[in-house]
Amino acid sequence: FTCNPKWQEVTRELLPHQSAVDRPDLTARVFHMKLRELLKDLCEKHCLGKVAAFVYVIEFQKCGLPHAHILLILSQDLKLHSVKDYDAIVSAEIPDPDVHPLTYETV
């Protein structure tokens, strides 16, 4: 989970000519607020299934923006066991070469 310097909660509090990296206090607070909501969705609302345990670590990028690595351990009865199970919740798309040619070429 990565802090987005263009989140509305960050950009509306910046003074003219400031960027998100100029306000690490602001970005850290907004990031922490959104991280708590994500963890609530995952652990209390069971968006991916019932969570038996979790751990996370927060790191800061070179530009000063925080990001979190989250490990979820799902309850035994809800664990994913096959490729089909994973495909049901994880997906990736190849960019359209006409709309995003540079991204398509990169992929």
Task: Give a quick set of tags describing it.
alpha+beta; 107 residues; flat
What are the SSEs and their pairings?
Elements: H1 8-11, H2 24-43, E1 51-60, E2 66-74, H3 83-89, H4 101-106
Antiparallel strand pairs: 1-2
Structure description:
With 107 residues, the protein is of the alpha+beta class. It has a domain at 8-75. It has 4 helices and 2 strands; from the N terminus they run H-H-E-E-H-H. A two-stranded antiparallel sheet has the order 1-2. The chain is flat and about 50 Å long. The protein starts with 7 loop residues before the first helix and ends with a helix. The model has no long low-confidence stretch (mean pLDDT 90).
Order of helices and strands: HHEEHH
- Summing up helix and strand content along with how strands pair, one would put the structural category as alpha+beta
- Tell me the radius of gyration: 18 Å
The proportion of residues forming helix, as a percent range, comes to 25-40%
**Total E-strand runs:** 2
Biggest beta sheet summary: 2 strands, antiparallel
Dominant shape: flat
Beta-strand portion reads: 15-25%
> How many distinct helices?
4
